[in-house]
Amino acid sequence: MSAPRQPATELLVLHGVRLLGHAPDAAVAARFGLDRDATTELLEDAEAFGQVTRSSFGASSGWSLTDRGRARGEALLAEELDGLGVRDKVAAVHEAFVPLNGRLLDACTQWQLRPLPGDPLAANDHADHAWDDRVLDDLVSVGRALEPLGVRLSGALPRCSGYSARYAAALAKVFQGERSWVDGVGIDSCHRVWMQLHEDLLATLGIARG
Question: Is 160 strand, coil or helix?
Answer without folding.
Answer: helix
